[in-house]
Amino acid sequence: MSDTTNSEAAVSAAAIRLWLQKSAEVLAEKRAYLTELDSPIGDADHGNNMDRGFKAVVATLSDKEDVGAVLKAVAMTLISKVGGASGPLYGTFFLDAGKPFAGKAALEPADLVTMFEDGIAGVKKRGRAEPGMKTMLDAQIPAAEALKAAVAEGKSAVEALKAAADAAEEGMKATIPMQAQRGRASYLGERSIDHQDPGATSSYLIIRALAEAVAETSQ
Amino acid sequence: MIGIVVVSHSARLAEGVKELADGMTQVEIPIAAAGGVDDPENPLGTDGIRVLEAIHEVMSDEGVLIFADLGSAKLSADMAIDLLEPDEQEKVKFCDAPLVEGVLAAAVQIASGGKLADVMREAQEAGAVAAPEADTAETDAPAARDDSNTRAEEFVIRNHHGLHARPASLLVQTMNGFDGDIRLENLTKGKKPVNAKSINGIMLSAVTGNDHVRLTASPEEADAVFAAMRRLVEDNFGEDDEVPAEAPAPSAPAPSEAQAAPSAGTSEAPEATDTLTGITIAPGFALGPLHHVRQEMPTIEAAKIDDPDAEIARFDKALAEAEAEIEAAMQAMGDSLSDYDRQIFSAHITYLHDPEITGGVRERIRSEKLAAASVWQETMSELADTYSGLEDKLLQGRAADIVDVGQRVLRFLIGDEAASALPDEPAILAFHELHPSDVLRLADTSVLGICSAVGGETSHAGILASNLSIPVVFSLGEGLNGVKDGQKVLLDGGKARLDLEPDPDDIAKMERDRAAFEALRAEAEAAKDLAAETKDGHLVRAAANMAALEELAAVADSGAEEIGLMRTEFLFMDRDAAPDEDEQTEIYKRIIAGLKGKPLTVRTMDIGGDKPVAYMDRPAEENPNLGWRGLRYSLDETALFDTQLAAILRASVEGPVRIMFPMVATLQELRAAKDRLQAVKDRLGKAGQPFDDKLEIGIMIEVPAAAEMADLLAPEVDFFSIGTNDLTQYMMAADRANPKVQKLSDPLQPAVLRMVARAIAAAHEAGIWIGMCGAMAGNRLAAPVLLGLGLDEFSMKPTDIGSFKLTIRRLTKPACEELAAEVLKLDGAEAVRKRVAAFLDEIETT
């Protein structure tokens, strides 16, 4: 993987595994922060739930050279272990994101776009949510759009994912002035304004972890 | 059946909702709880994969309904549905209803056979119950009634708490059996009529004790609907706590009068017929006043006291005296006390020491300055009610224990007369259902006879009561409740009849019958230790059947030369888990030791679908007699089977034992059972456990297939034993419990006798012995025929042995052989009966 001639090549199953490990690390590190974000507008368990879920993901990580199988295993673990609403939502994301890639050992940049778009479509359906409702979609959708644009311009996977992570960060911050319309936070109405959405935050962290993992494995 | 999945953030809440729903229905509904996440530190949450598993646990073609508590639980439920195969997805629906009310309403509808859509609608409407009164009218608005085309009848509900959850559930399940619209209107509370098939409708009607309700049904169904309702009302919807009728003005409410006679004062009281018929548990005759035994605490007026400390001291003294009395009873029973009895008595003592119970009583005596008797009575009544309200039969039985211990303490607080459930004068006792603990406490009292409204001969209480020397009849029906306390009645145990209005002729006839019965009993008693030998010197073996350790004394004293059948089902019933190998070994050893060298034939368990054992988790069967029972079950549930075989083998060092397999239909089954036995022997051998390697192996001949294949089965075993009860009903295709076909289900039918003849011939051809352990073996009319056919061993109720030997000792073998050949050609059981009776008369007179 350290062969520089492969820098334009695919995102391997090993890179995906590294992504998930990095996600678990950052979610563990930011566990208290996520819970703190969730306290005023949710039930103060997002950090805990995500940390528990991703620890379980790492513990049961599939060593198959099959991106679809790895992502499906992640989905099933999250569905089972996260506990809160994020469980079925992230579970759906990974389940639908991985579906087109069953049996594939690596992803091309265009595949990354498909992965994001399919995953996001699943989350929209599961949560009956649209952008602007102060949810994880508000980080995921800008990321997917930036990724798609970069790939269309012929950028490498590393560059395209960096653009995606930057867009996710912008999207995450943009949730601060929004009024929540889904989940527990929506019960607060206007009082949900001026808080950053914990789901968008965890999504940003996960997307940033992807960008870093692919960058590292492509060096 | 439609399944239910309960999804909750809390595992305990999900289990609790399941428990509540389980308790609401008579039939078992598939319900799976999917609550919480697997994280001890943060257990709250939902697990979509667990929901998926739960769906699969309760899945059937009829579908599954999922209920959830909070928002993300619904997401997990949706997720799980998405993970199903497409053909499964169609059958699974998420039901957006309040969790508790919704699941309960759904469970009741499922139990009464509702379709998925109906069940869902009923569950979704359940929200209305949570907000009572407000919209009673709306919920029923579309049901504009056309009074001109319906019939109505009024009923008075006597249940203390009225139509609360369980009775309402029973009512709905009953009414769902009818096609047409049925409405219920609470006249007392002035409620609008509601749909009698809707649990929510019924609960919204807020029917409480003594409320008058009107039921309306279509003219076509009205008679049947009202009859069904009448039965429910008469039976108090299966509950015991009844409110006193309003009508009679209460005179001085002495405690002993406080109990309302069941059904008294209701216009629907059944027209008492003058005879009730049940099933014989023990023969004999009794004439005397009937006394209903209160299986509840007597009512005691709350009284104030001045000195709480003195009252608490009095209470503590009564507890100590009650405990001393129980200890003394245990001492008195000595060796005949089985572990089961010991557990019952120990449980009674535990109640006396339970801090929740006694501490609460002391607290109320102190804080409210109330007399100990009234507080104790109230506490124990509530506890008993709680138990009897549970669906679990085993726990229901605990209610009797609580009442027993409650009454015992009351006796020391307020004196015998007011507290005791038993009358001072000798009487015939009437129970709703007899519990084992009742038999134990009656053992040393002077009682003329016992009868009960419900209960079977193969129940634990039935087995225990069959060894009493007084007439006992079970299953007389709810009509027994209508008989007045003190009414003079005549109980005929042998004929299983209770004559409610015996006239002088009846009594005179009974006296003659009793004299003959007593004379025969005395004669049989004298003959019981003689040999079962014919006049011409042919010997047969007289054996006894038994089922419980408590019978040991009766069996040892019966004149039996061996035990031809020990049923082992009771070792497994009335408990929370199967007895382990050591416990079973100990029980068999104690019985073998008590038999002092007489051989014991242990039949491996024949748990059938008709004898529910909670922890075995057996599916309900439409035809339990043709179902998964006997060896069929044992060969599938090999862990249970191996444990039992090992225990019997280990006990074999104590004395002679045989192993007998029930319900064998094929040679293959027999060989599989023998293979398992050999494997268990190998295991014990390796472990250095001693056992009798040569112990005899036999099979029951009770499935016609086994009788047909007897020639091939016989060389594989050491003995046969014919089970005539099952063989007869399988042979004649007639259910012995169905009175319409009882004449067919008669072991004296020539077809059955021919099958017996063939089994005997096959056994003797192979050089093995053959016995019989069904009811026919102790039947006086069957004895000469079976002797003539060559039967070697007759195993019967211990009490029948003396008279059996008397009969055998008057016979000669050749005459019986001729008789047997003759009756095999007669046209039916009736002709056989007549012919044998004539044969025996002839012998008597010569």
Automatic annotation (TrEMBL), chain A:
Superkingdom of the organism of origin: Bacteria
One Pfam family it belongs to: Dak2
One of the record's GO molecular function terms: glycerone kinase activity
One GO term of the biological process aspect: glycerol catabolic process
Domain DhaL: 14-212
One Gene Ontology CC term in the entry: cytosol
Keyword Transferase: yes
Keyword Membrane: no
Keywords noted in UniProt: Kinase, Transferase
Name of the protein in its database record: Dihydroxyacetone kinase, C-terminal domain
Source species taxonomy: Bacteria, Pseudomonadati, Pseudomonadota, Alphaproteobacteria, Hyphomicrobiales
From TrEMBL, chain B:
Cited SUPFAM superfamilies: Enzyme I of the PEP:sugar phosphotransferase system HPr-binding (sub)domain, HPr-like, Phosphoenolpyruvate/pyruvate domain, Phosphohistidine domain, PTS system fructose IIA component-like
Keywords per UniProt: Cytoplasm, Kinase, Magnesium, Metal-binding, Phosphotransferase system, Sugar transport, Transferase, Transport
UniProt keyword Magnesium, yes or no: yes
Reactions catalysed, as given in the entry: L-histidyl-[protein] + phosphoenolpyruvate = N(pros)-phospho-L-histidyl-[protein] + pyruvate; dihydroxyacetone + phosphoenolpyruvate = dihydroxyacetone phosphate + pyruvate
UniProt-annotated stretches for the region Disordered: 128-148, 240-271
Keyword Magnesium: yes
MF GO annotations: metal ion binding; phosphoenolpyruvate-glycerone phosphotransferase activity; phosphoenolpyruvate-protein phosphotransferase activity
Main location: cytoplasm
UniProt subcellular location: Cytoplasm
Cofactor: Mg(2+)
All copies of domain PTS EIIA type-4, residue ranges: 1-131
Parts forming coiled coils: none
GO annotation, cellular component aspect: cytoplasm; membrane
Domain HPr residue range list: 150-240
Compositional bias of kind Low complexity: 128-142, 245-264
PROSITE patterns assigned: PTS_EIIA_TYPE_4, PTS_HPR_DOM, PTS_HPR_HIS
CDD domains: PTS-HPr_like
GO biological process, one term: phosphoenolpyruvate-dependent sugar phosphotransferase system
Domain of life according to the entry: Bacteria
PANTHER family: PHOSPHOENOLPYRUVATE-PROTEIN PHOSPHOTRANSFERASE
Family (UniProt): Belongs to the PEP-utilizing enzyme family.
Subunit and partners: Homodimer. The dihydroxyacetone kinase complex is composed of a homodimer of DhaM, a homodimer of DhaK and the subunit DhaL.
Function of the molecule: Component of the dihydroxyacetone kinase complex, which is responsible for the phosphoenolpyruvate (PEP)-dependent phosphorylation of dihydroxyacetone. DhaM serves as the phosphoryl donor. Is phosphorylated by phosphoenolpyruvate in an EI- and HPr-dependent reaction, and a phosphorelay system on histidine residues finally leads to phosphoryl transfer to DhaL and dihydroxyacetone.
Name of the featured protein: Phosphocarrier protein FPr
Record organism: Afifella marina DSM 2698
Taxonomic lineage of the native organism: Bacteria, Pseudomonadati, Pseudomonadota, Alphaproteobacteria, Hyphomicrobiales
